[in-house]
Structures are given as C-alpha cells and as structure tokens.
Amino acid sequence: MGPRPVARRERVVSAPLGGAPSPADGPGGPDAAPDRVLFGAPGGPSRPRVLSVAGTDPTGGAGIQADLKSIAAHGGYGMAVVTALVAQNTRGVRASHVPNPAFLRAQLDAVSDDVTVDALKIGMVATEAVARELGAWLAVHRPPHVVLDPVMVATSGDRLLDGGAEDAVRSLLAHADLVTPNLPELAVLLDEPVAATWAEALDQGARLARRHGVAVLVKGGHLAGEPGRSPDAVVTVEGTVEIDAARVATLHTHGTGCSLSAAVATLRPQRDDWVPAVREAKEWLTGALRAGAALQVGTGNGPVDHAHLQGSARAFTHGAWEQVADLRAACDELVFVRGLAAGTLEPAQFAFYLAQDALYLREYSRVLARASELAPDREAQEFFARGAHHCLAVESDLHRRWLGRYGPTRAGDAGTGGAGTGAAATSPVTAAYTDHLRAVAASGSYAELVAAVLPCYWLYADIGARLLARADLDGHPYADWIATYGDPEFARASDRARALTDAAARSVGPAERARMLEAFVRSCRHEWLFFAQGTSMPSWPAPSPAAAEPEPAGVR
Ligand SMILES: Nc1ncnc2c1ncn2[C@@H]1O[C@H](COP(=O)(O)OP(=O)(O)OP(=O)(O)O)[C@@H](O)[C@H]1O
Ligand SMILES: Cc1ncc(COP(=O)(O)O)c(N)n1
C-alpha cells in the first residue's frame, strides 16, 4: 500500500526546497544523466552493464581483475578493455606491455558496436597515446556515468603512467563525472604539492572540482595525521560530503583504489547520486579490507577480499526475497491484483482498498518515524524521516484525489460493514498489519524494524514494475494508480530501503538476523492479505451503540 506514491511525491514535494543540484549530482546537476534505468524491470536489463578500461594484474588484486570482481560484488555485469598487460604481483611491477592505440580502439569499438554501457570506470591508461585514443572514443560513445581513477603510481611505488603523460590523464577529466585520485594523484592533477592534512586535501578537491567541473572523490588512504580513520569525501562545486570510516590495520591494501572506483561506477546507475553510491562502496571496501589477510594471497601487500559478502554472508535481502518467492507469486494471482491490472476491478472494491491504504499510511508513517529515531547514521535517519513525512502527504492526497472521487460514504460502506456513515473504519486485516509493525517498532531493534518496513517498499516496487509492463494504460480506469506503482523514483526508494536493511543485517549477529527475517516474512504475509481483502473481505457488523453507563448508586 505503501510508500510508492511517497517516493513519487519525494520528487515533486522536494523540488522547491531541494531542487538545486545536490553536492554530489555532478557537474551537470541531477538532470545531466538520463533517468536511472530500472534494472530487473520487465523488458529492461537485469543488471547494470559496466565497462572497465584498465591494466591487468595477474595476481588478481588490482586493475581489471579487481574491477571485474568488484563489479560482480555490486550486482553489475562486468566488461573489460585492456590498456596494458602488466607483469606484477603483490610485491611490485616487473614489466608492462601496452598494445598500440589502434588495438585499444578496436577493443572499445567491439564493445560499443554491440553493447549498451551503463557505466564506465577508467583505470590505468599507461601512456599519452592510450589516453588520447580513449578520449577520442569517449567523445563519441560517452556512457551515462563515467568514473576516472587517475592511476599513476602503484602501492609498491612503481610507476604505472609514463612520465610526462599527466596532461593526457588531465584531458580525460573533461569526459568524467567523478574522479577518484589518491592524495599524490590529486596533487599531480593540480600541479601542487601533496596535501599534508585532510583539510588541505579537501581544499585541493574543491579546486579540482571547480577547475574541471567534475565531482571529486578525495580519498584519505594515504593520509598520515588521522589516526584510526580513513576518511573520504565527495567534493563538488556545490559543497563537500565527508564519508568517514575506520582505518583497518592491515598491509593488504593492494587494489583498494581500483576496487572502490569500480564499485562506485557499478552502484551509480542503481542509486540516486554519487554520495549514496560512494557511501555503500566504502562500507563494502572496509569489510573487504578486513577480510583481505585471510585470503593469504602473496607475500607483499595482498589484495582485499572482494567476495567477503558472498557465501554465508551474502546480502540479507537476497535470501529474504527468495524465502517469500511463493508469497510473491500468490500476490500476482490475487483476484484483486489481476483485476487492477486488467481494469476490471469493481470501483467500490478499489475504493475500499484505498480507504484502508490511507488508514495504513497514517500508522506506517509513525513506524517510519521510529526507524528514523533508531537509525545509526544521518543518511538512514533522513531517509526514514522523509518517508514518514511523505506517507502523511500521500494519505492526504489519497483523500483528496481518490476517495473524493468515489465518495467517503462508499468507502465507508465497505469499511463499516454497510453502515454508510462516512469515514472508513480500520479493517481487521489493516489493523493486524499495523499492529505487527507497531509491535516491532515498540520492542524490536533498528535492524528488525527496517526488515519489517521493507516489504511495503519492495513488494510494491516489484509488483508495480510488472503491472506497469503488462497493463495497457490507454483508457485504463486505474492508469494513474498503476503508473505510480511502476514509478522509477519509487524503485529507487525501495533500493535504498533494501540497502539500509542489508547494512543493518551486516552489523548484527545471527540471532538478530533471524528475527529480522521473521519480521520481514510476516510483513510480506500482511501485504498479501492487504491486497486480498480488496476483493474477499466480508463485511463485518458495525459495533452496537455503547450500553448506557449505569447510574452511580446513591444519586438522588
Ligand atoms: N587501511 C585502510 N583502512 C580503511 N580504508 C582504507 C585503508 N587504506 C585505504 N583505504 C580506503 O581505500 C580507498 C582507496 O584509498 P587510497 O587513498 O589508498 O587510494 P589509492 O591509492 O588510489 O588506492 P590503491 O592502493 O589501489 O592505489 C579509500 O576509500 C580509502 O579510504
Ligand atoms: C593494472 C593496475 N592498475 C592499478 C594499480 C594500482 O593499484 P595499487 O596501487 O593498489 O597497486 C595496479 N597495481 N595495477
């Protein structure tokens, strides 16, 4: 029932306040890139198709090999064009071979002649000639999201870019949305000394952003004076968003920059802007750094573990979604859902459903407000607070746009078992769902609560996308309503709710994860019932008038 129109409203309502490009929208503002593709929607690609243009590392920790693992770990389909074959391992670089630029172009064209690229990550370009050829290709085939990792020197200290080719890398900035230099690379791009403090690094990031109209991911991996921390920041002409993380005490940092930039490139087509993509990628990278040593790869600076969330620790929502596969199929088969898609649903049944939806949203808003209160960080707090606010906006909108159309009495008829006395009463099905949510809000943890509220986003985004693809909306009585179900904005909010749930799941132990799963599955069952009541809820008798209070003894 839920927040799908909420997310839709998010775009409309926030425009006057937040309509200016956000700091992380990139140089062209929020409209520079086309609307996000709804990956996994019918008829569309199931995953973002991400191209890495970079050098190789036969030991698999950096370059293209790392990029492909990182892309896969973030749900992308990875492709790779090789700029340079590098004989290296965890101890250093021995030799490299750079194929001629014509062969690079042949590889690039082989991809762009055949495949749509949703995001591009550029890593080691090795020589000026490679950078120029790549620039020429980009001038014609620029993908919607371009991340440039201006690789110059390896962790081992070996050069990966020809001396004198810095200008050519700088020229690629014109084709990039986000550039991800480490501190020495940032200094080279600006032709300034290396920043000694985090504040200086941020200033340099701002100068680079202004000079080239690009978003800059300033990385604190090489920073000395911040003990225990490894902060990064997304810096644009509009401002700076810092993303802090604990420093992992490890030698195994080979390929961190490659892995991070590939992760961000893969997440960007799946997220609203650069900040959430970087936040998620960095959180993942910190886990990958922690798990790196256990791989026992090499005797030098070993790689990070790109697969640390796979296997037993794979994303919580992945397993939870599989658990409710039957319920999801059952939702599709409901008379209500089929009638909605076909346009054959009785208007009175639709009105009853909407009246219950409005009642539900009022309660759901309170529950989202509680999730905001419990949220562990500002981004989650804002996400749920916005959701809570928009639920109320949508509830009012439902009354104004939809329930007015059918008349409060008819909705009330359905809701009060035929009493026909105006406002709808909460049905037992609606009450059971909101009771469940409020119980988790009252006594569950943040992790359990986000799992409980997730189905209201995710099931609707999922059903919405399929309804939209199937239904012919021309002259359809519920066209407006179905369009809100399939709105990509809503799918984005659902993705975010899912990512927050996964982040919460990663921070708790197995017992709490089991409670999260239970809360999630229960909410899914309530969602199914909520749809089902639209066509199969019997009227229930209106309550009898309250018995008159007995008069207290001794009066008169
Ligand atoms: N020891 C660490 N603990 C936590 N995060 C780290 C650590 N070292 C690097 N990082 C993070 O890894 C990412 C890459 O940062 P870094 O500044 O090392 O870039 P880089 O030098 O381009 O990487 P690479 O080592 O691949 O060349 C950043 O998000 C940074 O904060
Ligand atoms: C092909 C290639 N690209 C990038 C790096 C940088 O990674 P790191 O600095 O972690 O060695 C590398 N070593 N090899």
Structure, explained:
Helix 8 (256-267) packs antiparallel against helix 9. The protein has helices at 4-18, 63-73, 101-112, 128-141, 166-172, 183-190, 198-212, 256-267, 274-292, 316-323, 325-333, 335-342, 347-374, 378-406, 408-415, 428-443, 446-470, 479-485, 488-506, 510-536, and strands at 49-55, 77-89, 92-97, 119-122, 146-148, 178-179, 215-219, 232-236, 239-243. Strands 3-2-1-4-5-6-7-8-9 form a 9-stranded mixed β-sheet, sandwiched between helices. Helices cover 53% and strands 9% of the residues. Mean pLDDT is 85; it is low at 1-34, 408-422 and 551-556. The chain folds into 2 domains: 46-305, UDP-N-acetylmuramoyl-L-alanine:D-glutamate ligase; 317-536, Up-down Bundle (Heme Oxygenase, Chain A). The chain starts with a helix and ends in a 20-residue tail after the last helix. 49% of the residues are buried. It has 556 residues and is an alpha/beta fold. The structure holds adenosine-5'-triphosphate and (4-amino-2-methylpyrimidin-5-yl)methyl dihydrogen phosphate. The site of (4-amino-2-methylpyrimidin-5-yl)methyl dihydrogen phosphate has 19 residues, from strand 1, strand 2 and helix 8. Adenosine-5'-triphosphate (ATP) binds next to helix 8 and helix 9.
